[in-house]
Amino acid sequence: MENTVIPVGGEQPYDVLVGRGLHTELPALVGKATRVAVVFTRTVEHYAQHATHALIEAGYTVLPIEVADAEAGKTIATAQQCWDALGAAGFTRTDAIVGVGGGAATDLAGFVAACWLRGVPWVSLSTSINGMVDAALGGKTGVNLGAGKNLVGAFHPPVGVLCELSALDTLPPAQLRAGLAEVVKGGFIADPVILDLVEADPAAAVDPAGPVLRELVERKVRVKAHVVAEDLTEQGLREILNYGHTLGHAIERVEAYRWPHGHAVAVGMVYAAIVSRRTGRVDVVERTRRILTSLDLPTTYRADAWDDLLAAMRVDKKARGAALRFVLLADVGKPETVAVDDEELLRAAYEELTREPAA
Questions:
Q1: Which residues contact 25 (CB under 8 A, 6 or more apart)?
Q2: What are the two backbone dihedrals, phi and then psi, of residue 26, each rounded to the nearest 5 degrees?
Q3: Residue 242 in domain
Q4: Domain of 60, in residue numbers
Q5: pTM of the model as a whole
Q6: How many other β-carbons are positioned within 10 Å of the β-carbon of residue 27?
Q7: Burial class (CB in 10 A: 0-12, 13-18, 19+), 118
């Protein structure tokens, strides 16, 4: 099957390519660079080697930089190591960076690129569902701090995003399913066909060799491409992409980032659905639980965590003053950002979240 090209508009337009064997596209994307740093994690070393060989054959000098996997590598200390390596290799403003891996790796690579000489070109070669449909496109880059997730970062769009579907063939099933939480999110906020596809055949949705998963990836990429083209720096529309993330990011912090991002967002979406219903909006609580359960994603969290979660939400970058900001649903496909200062309502919603639904 041919590669799918999905354009992302805005002041700095670029394309997202969805397909297989996409490392061959790298030379055209890095353009006039002389040196290219390939930032990767050991779990995707195979794809980093393909990228390196393609660049070397095209005449580039390649600097491989291995970083820790997942959120463990998404730190200021790791970024510092990358910058030190770039400095030692003499990277200039026209050189480029390629991030190979999941969402954490591409977030880090983009942040390193954003800060080096105040911004150098970078490319995302995404090897996970979350990276493909969320982290890699949109220009948000960043690292975590002890105080919270993504608190230090920059808006720095890539020059291209490559969604390498062949990487999904060997992705651990649990990791693939976790990535689908972001896809489901896209269904609730913008494209209900995503929800219909998952409900019709959950097994097909997690089959990396089948057409349904590819369609789900492409649909979610189109959702995000439309949003970020309209609002790169999250001044309005882009906030809808935070559906499920207010509580989700708090769970990640409380779990010291040991929980997969998709698991935290899945629970966060159930919570947002409960808050939506309790504030007089649409009731999609049971549908949300049913879809997520069909993908083996969690829908509850421990009852004793509320105080810690509330404290984490108060330092989240989405908070404004005393009120917490949530993306809620007026209806499926109709999200709205709402400031909620009723702590008792939020606590009661959380208590409902922690109760297992009746069989």
A1: 17, 160, 162
A2: -60, -45
A3: yes
A4: 4-169
A5: 0.91
A6: 17
A7: exposed
